[in-house]
Amino acid sequence: MNLAHSLWIWVGAFLTFCIFSFLYKDNPLYKFAEHLFVGVSVGYSISISYHNVLYPDLIVPLFKHGQLLNIIPLLFGLCYFARFIPQVSWLIRLPMGLVLGFGAGAAIPATLQASVIKQIQGAVLTPGIFARWDFFLWALISFIGLICTVIYFFFSKERVKSTKFAAEVGIIFLMVGFGASFGYTVMARISLLIGRFQFLLRDWLGIIR
Amino acid sequence: MKFFQALGKIDRKIIFIILSVVIIIPLLKPFGLISRASSRAEAIFNAVDAIPVGKPLMISIDFDPGSMPELYPMLTAILRHAFAKDVKVVLLGLWITGMGLGEQALETVSHEYNKVYGKDYVFLGWKSGVLPVVLGMGEDIRKAYPADYYGTPLESLPMMANIKNYRDVPFFISLSAGTPGYESWIAYAQSRYGLKIGAGVTAVSAADAYPYLQTGQLTGMLGGMKGASEYEFLVKEKGYSQQSSPASQAMDSQSLAHLLILILIVLGNVGYFFTRKTISKGAK
Question: Which chain A positions have a beta carbon within 8 Å of B127's beta carbon?
Fold first, then answer.
């Protein structure tokens, strides 16, 4: 055993046990660690935001280099705080409108291209899939799954015999998808637990390398 | 029947203790189960391997300490690979709380390979807003990042002299724990500027990443701690690093824990199957 010499490793180990104590039941130690985490995260974020964004991108250009155009984003940013003054709270609509307008304008075509058009292209059976029999088989299964799942989510018309069958096949594909996601979720949670045990056994107790 | 009824009533604290034991024992005494690399991990490895000397690999830290056990080993393994191949590294991130992890990984791995800041690697850090950053770098990295994480102007960093925008970045990896993450890079940097992207993702989001892999939008993918262990395996196998591999060391525990959970799921269902008549009678 080679116990850690750093105070911060001991703090980390103590906080880990505080969080683990929730597995027994909710208690003040868990609450302490939870609140400390929230506070530290916010403090850290404010500090990085100031040093990496506010100071170099606004304060320096505006107040040190005299680039007066930076007053415009400053004023827009300050409008967010108008929320606290009821008489001028409508001013918040200005930055919100800008952010929503720019965000939607940039996101809609990009997301359509990346997540819809490309995915449809990927689902279409192309001549390339006939290169190998297993390519063809998986592409066909994927294609059937796509069609049946889309039919399952089509609610505008009552299902007749054929579409009912396709929707039921779609449910099977959905269940397989949920199963895969659940399996991966279990893997993720176990990984996080292993990570904590590695920290305790290696960094804190020095039992493993 | 009593046995099956008892199965459904196991105290969760007992399960926690058994799970802890099952995880700790292989960490203390590894069984040495063999971990091989998948084609998805090999695709990322080969893409990094193919980066010409002097050209940069760009890595985005789109995660925070909550996903550290899964994504941090990927970051260190990829950095070791890049530095061993004399590939320049540009590190940045879309998650503000991941910056400390990026700095820590660079400090640790750059010392192992005697790499110099500004010449061999640069840490750009974090900027607010995903769209202006990702789109802005497509035009000119200096528009989004006039200075690095430490406030040094990019003009004074020798490595950045020949890196103007995505056209100068042969390969990009997003280590992603959610949104914003690899999907943002695909939507804005790839769709518009054709950036070649690979992703390291948490296991929770791995299933969602497969469609992007199938369409070729992702060159390769590392999924969870298993993905990290696959990359560590490749880096060691090719002789790029002999450092300890935390993800690979965890694979015995991971496998055993999965086995335990499978057994518990089966026992739980068997218990339910044999007691459901009793339960339904009780309900009536």
Answer: 52-53, 57
Range of the domain at A172: 124-209
Please enumerate in sequence order all residues whose Cβ is within 8 A of that of B114, keeping only pairs 6 or more positions apart, or say none.
none
Q: Answer yes or no: is A103 within a domain.
A: no
Of B67, B97, B149, the CB nearest to A41: B97
Q: Decide if pLDDT at A72 tops 90.
A: yes
What ipTM describes this predicted complex? 0.90
- SS3 for A2-70 is CCCCCHHHHHHHHHHHHHHHHHCCCCHHHHHHHHHHHHHHHHHHHHHHHHHHHHHHHHHHHHHCCCHHH
Distance between CA B50 and CA B68 in Å, rounded?
27
How confident is the prediction for chain B on average, in pLDDT?
A: 92
CA distance B264 to chain A (A): 13
pLDDT in tens, A169-200: 999 999 999 999 999 999 999 999 999 999 99
As given in the structure block, the two tokens for residue B219 are 């060159």
Among B92, B214, B242, B264, the strongest candidate for a mutation testing the A interface, having the largest count of A CBs within 10 A, is B214
How does pLDDT run across A102-153, given as a tens digit for each residue? 999 999 999 999 999 998 888 876 777 788 888 888 888 989 999 999 999 9
